């Protein structure tokens, strides 16, 4: 008797399609991206904030999106197998610390490798607690975050800040590791220079596209390239292979998967270990890009990664788009701060005005009124002020996270068995 899952046995395969969510096709996605570029270009021209589409802005956004995207991809692996992984932040901490510990001694590539192992260790703890012992997934994830924070602070004091130690003599202290060597980057010389020349003209749309493309081909870390390959590989492995079908069945209908011969425990363990490893690589990227581990370095990026996974509807492409959005906001507040965030007030007002019209068309008058009033207030804020408070600038990535989740929550569908306890033979 065959134990392979047939395509027809895929959870939800026989569900009616009428009245469901419309699947985004590649042409639609390209239209959305093109529309976003035109909108940002128009916003740059109206506000005169040229850094909105500069190569430097998008280069920084790509770097910020890498760590966030890897955390989100890690969350996708775990939750597709039915395990909620709110411990992504702690796994990033472990990866960041491990990278700082090894990186100053053996270089950035060794730091990346040990960062993966550090995150996988956190994933193993989470898997043992949730899969083997049935601990509530949220409780276990919070515990992993707390344990990782305490462990990294203690070990940093012990290994980096010990009086007379080699690490302290090399520039470390109880809050950070000694610096490590640079991670190699690549630039496409001729193309990069040509795009920079076009960007400097500040032409509508043409210069904006040149700035965006310039940020993607100038001083790009090889770890970013690896992250892109991991996204592509995740898609093909989880959606184009029998392994991925079996793993996803563990998150949709584990009892049915078990009846067809799938070892649900094995797949859950594998998914959570991969989840931790990807989050650990995201944490390692932070240490490598700044050249050292520092206490508090992750700064909530694990939670933002979790938000990108939800925004992306548990799909690699959606996670990548969410990581790009949050990476842009993170880079914006780090690079240019107040002026750019101030310009975005106008852009956000335009988005809320469109949302108000859509809600009015759908006969949802209360929501339309709230969105319309908010849009008017943002326009007034923009024209009556020249800058925004520093505290708001620093909080802009987190505000963007909340807004995105609030606007897109209704169209999301997590795996059906996500977070639910499973015991072998429970369906017998």
UniProtKB/TrEMBL annotation:
Primary location group = membrane
The places in or outside the cell where this protein is found are: Cell membrane
GO CC, any one term: plasma membrane
Q: How does it sit in the membrane?
A: Multi-pass membrane protein
Q: Which UniProt keywords apply?
A: Cell membrane, Membrane, Transmembrane, Transmembrane helix
What's the short name of a Pfam family annotated to this entry? BPD_transp_2
TM spans (from-to): 24-46, 58-76, 83-104, 110-135, 142-162, 220-239, 269-293, 341-360, 367-384, 396-414
Q: Which GO terms describe its molecular function?
A: transmembrane transporter activity
Which InterPro entries does the annotation name? ABC_transp_permease
Q: What is this protein called?
A: ABC transporter permease
